[in-house]
Amino acid sequence: MKQRILFGRLILAPALVLMVLAIVAGGQIIGSRDLLNDVRVIDETLVALHTNGEALERLHAAEVALKLYQNGPGPQIESLRLQLLHEASRLKSLAPDLAALPQAGLEEMKPDSSKQDADLLLKFARLLEQIGTDAGPGGLRAESQHLQTLLNDRLKSRDQAFHQILAEIGRA
User: How far apart are CA 62 and CA 57, in angstroms?
Assistant: First the structure.
């Protein structure tokens, strides 16, 4: 009888405690993996949100430069043309960053959506360069307006999707 009590107290009790600790630790490891995954998704989403916001900002600046160039006064036309070309080069420099945006959490968008947006941004930048170099202020107005509207809508849609991802993670 004494051996049973000793066996129960010395071996089984610590073994049960160790089993409970192992179960709790296993749950915390799984929980920390989920937390690390959430942190990774939040980090990627914030970087993408920043890049997308920068693209929207540069697109707006290019739109303003284009309108000023198309409607600007004659004496300032050269400085307006240079501003238009500057905005076009800024858009071109952002295209690789936009193409590299992650698609994580954007299941409703096509897998190559970032690449398509970057291609549209490059096309718009090239069009601005063409307007600023040889077409003159009045040329290619309809095409530039169409591309600008399309890009603006796509980038705003992506911006809303990124905000929604962050809100869903915040609720979880």
Answer: 9
Reported in sequence order, the residue ranges of 63-147 that DSSP labels E, i.e. its strands, are none
Contacts 24+ apart (CB under 8 A), 19-23: none
Cβ-based neighbour number of residue 23 at 10 Å:
10
| 123 closest CA partner among 99, 102, 101 | 99
Alpha-carbon gap, residue 146 to 153, rounded angstroms: 11
pTM for the whole structure: 0.70
Please name the residues in contact with 156: beta carbons below 8 A apart, sequence gap of 6 or more: 56
Q: What is the pLDDT of residues 49-107, one digit of tens each?
A: 888 889 999 999 999 888 888 887 778 888 888 898 999 999 999 888 888 876 655 55
Inter-residue contact 87 to 62 (CB < 8 Å): yes
For the CA atoms of 105, 110, 115, 121, the dihedral, rounded to the nearest 10 degrees, stands at -100
